[in-house]
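Bump. Still looking for Cilia- and flagella-associated protein 77 structure tokens.
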Amino acid sequence: MLVSRQSAMEASRSPKPFQRLKKRHSATVICPPPLLPLRMAELRPGMENERAGVVRDTMLQNHLILKPELGKTRSRCSRLPGSDFVYGLTLRGTDGGVPEAIGHWNSVKPISKATKELPRDFVAMNRGAVVAGLVTTKEHYRYRQTHDIRRPEDDKRHFKRDPPRLPDAMTYGMPPRPSTPIIDVFQHKYKELWMEGQRAAAEARHKGKQKIRQRGKVYETYSTVLKKYKQPMQPDPLWHLPHFEKVGRHLDTFPSCSSWRTSSS
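Sorry for the wait, here they are.
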């Protein structure tokens, strides 16, 4: 009896087939409704966007005023469609689907290759006209009308449409330069080479200037010396404050100039 009761209890606890179907997600869960901007009715105490005073829904639809909620992505205050909305372009089929595929087959029309007109061989026609003894332009023109010679497709004098077969190991473009040795980078070898090149270039310029000077050497004469002579100019006297300039005496206590000279000497 105990075993039968336990088995009956386990059977009653185990979900039945129709009960399992009830636990499945509904259409609203699979395809949620469109996502709308935040509204006043959705505000709760303690939220970041809680306002005091006059609050309007338009204030919560401005992304410059709206604050990001903790643990949620930042809202841009835009209305988003639900999960049943498909982004992108809708491609509508132009065929009839399976019935048309089973009913008949679309036969592909063969592509007719247009016959290419071969170019005229003017070299052969001119040669034939000369052999025939024709000289004037009018005679050559009539000869070309009666003797229309075309150049064959396998003419080796011109390039064919298909390029020649190239080797498999062929590399297009310029070959890469060899890698720079790291020891030369550590030793500043390229700096020394550049400095040597600069010194050699400076020395070559100096030698070239010396050769030019020797070629255009001018002997010094009396006239050249006079041309080069610059007359010395007296420098302007320094400016002194008038307060410190020597001022004549205000009182003359000497009876004569001779007595003043004897006193100063």
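The mean pLDDT is 77.

Edit: fixed formatting.
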